[in-house]
Every structure is written in C-alpha cells, then in structure tokens.
C-alpha cells in the first residue's frame, strides 16, 4: 500500500515521501497515529496544499524536543525494586515504569518514546534511549537497585551482587556427606 508520510519515520522515510508499506503496518500504525495518508490523487493535492503548515509544525515540535533534550540527556534515574540474592528482579522494569519515573522528575515523556528492546530484569545501571522527536534522541541512565543506599553504591561503580560466584559450600552441601547418605563410596556401590 502506498502512503504519503506526514512526518519523518525511522527506517522508512522523510516527510512528504511516498513509500510502499505493508497494508497492516499502514492501517494499524501509520494511518492510525496520523503519521501518513493514503497515496491517492486527492490526498497528494491536499498534502501539497498543507505542506508548509506541516513543515512549520514539525520544526516547532523539533525545537521543543531539542530544548527538553538538553535538560534530559545523560540524566540518571533510580528505581527501587525487590530482587533475589542473585540480583534477578521479582518483576521487570518496563517502558511504563520508566515513563512514570521520568515524568515524576518533571519531564513530559510518553512510554512510546522510550526504546527498550527487552525489559530490564536485573539490578544494575542501564543506558536507555529516549526518542523525543523522530529527529531528536537522548540517552538516560536507569539505576535499578533494592534500596537507595545500594543505588548510591552502584552509581559509584561498586559491584553490589556477586553473580558469578556459585559455591556448593554456600548451599550447605558436602559431596562426601551426600555420597555417604546414598551408600556410594568413590563411585562404587556397597
């Protein structure tokens, strides 16, 4: 299906370009969110008549996004979550959680603007991209910790969790005792 883009769409094209996309993507995303129009003769004429207004509105939004980007870029946010001893969270941190914490700090960010390829499921520091405008992207740092004190330690670069240390002695198991209980000695049955 051919559509006329009303704004820049990443990995697709610039404003005003006529592109060929799959019908489902056009109906469910581009047309539904007002990012494109069907490429009919009437819509092409309508777009050309409105082009100057659309470009002015796009430029205004971009300037607003750049203003927010200057304040938001590189900012760090702390999320307190419960986790197990190995640092794996009992839940996960999603784009909704990140949007809420950024909005509480005074920035107007929608969860659709936060780019998470997969949810955050462990403690630690994470760099997360935020797309404020199709042409303006910033990065924030998310510090996921169990307590504010632990978050401060992580921010200083300290390791809070020993993830790779697995020791049978920590579990209270002794190989010799386990073998004696099962009646085995040195690999032979008694």
TrEMBL record:
Domain Ribosomal protein L9 as annotated: residue spans: 13-40
Coiled coil segments of this chain: 37-69
Keywords on record: Coiled coil, Ribonucleoprotein, Ribosomal protein, RNA-binding, rRNA-binding
Alphabetized Pfam families for the sequence: Ribosomal_L9_C (PF03948), Ribosomal_L9_N (PF01281)
InterPro entries registered for this protein in UniProt: Ribosomal_bL9, Ribosomal_bL9/RNase_H1_N, Ribosomal_bL9_bac/chp, Ribosomal_bL9_C, Ribosomal_bL9_C_sf, Ribosomal_bL9_N, Ribosomal_bL9_N_sf
GO CC, alphabetical: ribosome
Signal peptide: none
Metal-binding listed as a keyword: no
Xref: PANTHER family: 50S RIBOSOMAL PROTEIN L9
HAMAP family from the UniProt entry: Ribosomal_bL9 (MF_00503)
Function per UniProt: Binds to the 23S rRNA.
Protein name in the entry: Large ribosomal subunit protein bL9
Upper classification of the organism: Bacteria, Pseudomonadati, Pseudomonadota, Alphaproteobacteria, Hyphomicrobiales
